[in-house]
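Predicting holo structure, uridine 5'-triphosphate bound.
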Amino acid sequence: MTTTITDRYAAAKEALDAIDQGHVLKFYDELDEQQQDSLLTEIEGVDWPEVAALIETHVKNKPRFTLPGSIEPAPWYPYEVSDAVRAKYIEARRVGDQLIRDGKVAVFTVAGGQGSRLGWDGPKGTFPATPIRRLPLFACFAEYIHNIQKRYGVAIPWYVMTSPLNHADTVAFFEKNAWFGLKQENIMCFPQAMFPAIDLQTRQVLMSAKDAIALSPNGHGGSLKALYTSGAIADMLQRGVTQLSYTQVDNPIVRMVDPLFLGLHELDGADMSSKMLPKAYPKEKLGNICVVDGKVTVIEYTNLPDELAEQRDEDGELSFKCGNVALHALRVDFVEKLNTRPTETGTGGFALPWNRAEKKVAHIDLDSATPVKPETPNAIKLETFVFDALPLCETSIVYETDRVDEFAPIKNADTPEGEEAANDSPESSKQLQTERAARWLEANRVKVPRRADGTVDAVIEIPQVTAIYPEDLKDAKLPRAIEPGAEVLL
Ligand code: UTP
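Done. Tokens:
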């Protein structure tokens, strides 16, 4: 039996009226057929009973964070290799290398965010990120994948989560760039689900146009469902992929496939593991990877009490030192199980906690249908976070990484010229990329000019297709020294 547009309208109206959100269809009769179809498709994509429940719990009320009874620092594997870990790391590296060589590892880039802080017109992955070639983020990742594929002689499937807002533009970008020389059949882009913005005062779902709800992506936590519903997990199982390397779209130097991290995660039988950066100072704006009631759990920096954030061990090091940088390894069957296991309500699937944020959301006025651009936050957006799946793991490990080696995120817009680079901006990222390149060259006995404050007095770019470790430059043709102020592309 085919469903007519009249049936779809009736079902949508029933679902919306049941939760007092009937205004979503207010302009329906004024729309042409295509617009009606598009609005109904949006309505059908939203879980309305969940919206109603969340209006009660997260819009009418501000859920308070309750500090768990027992919070301990998470144990972690150190970045520096010492006698204590050497044997384990050798074995882990062997296991990680084997996983990759056997085609059991896929990479996953979450690229569904709106990138509002950066303010780039287009998907964030299309942003020019490197200091000299201005290579877009997606192209940086493609170079990394090319390198790994060559090194291990294996195809690495690449899954990219978009959102309905940037999906078409993302796919068009891959197409325009001929899939960056990778095989199209090994790249799968799929959109995540969306959630409506709710007016803070009226608690009504906002409309962005007569035929559109003000929807935004439901947070990177939505990736764990989208991986399953999109068929990506089924595709991985069919390919024999057992481990997924999760990375964000904003970091051009991320180690997309790290054999040691993957090997430790596999050896310890972990479901989902995390890389951490030692926090530079107690209240650094990174989630704190802790252990709560025996489970690895991320506590946001705003929720960790000062006395814990500032607590130090006998060596003077921060006790709660593990900063979350959103680099994870996930077992494919763990993600599958999350989506298929029975729950208390017997519906299957899983739920991550929702987080509320007050935001400025442009919309139309429901009486006049004119656009409204709020000056102050007018709406609640709700998102789930991927790290909230950590407490659902039987086992979860943490491995330390190094800032310069793999953390040069681009989140904020650049400051005006002449001003100091903002944190996590295109400029700070380029400086970090140059610093990493400089260290790799210095490790290969190239003289790099440095200013009195230690910063590199040059701009250097090493394509990841050439090197992803300093030792990859061993046989490269390198200059003996770099001139101060030079631009050097290796
Ligand atoms: P951020 O928290 O940096 O958010 O996302 P954002 O949306 O990119 O940027 P702002 O906050 O609007 O400026 C971290 C990572 O999670 C992805 C982003 O694409 C980025 O890789 N993400 C975020 C999603 O894939 N979906 C979401 O709903 C949110």
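The chain has 13 helices and 21 strands.
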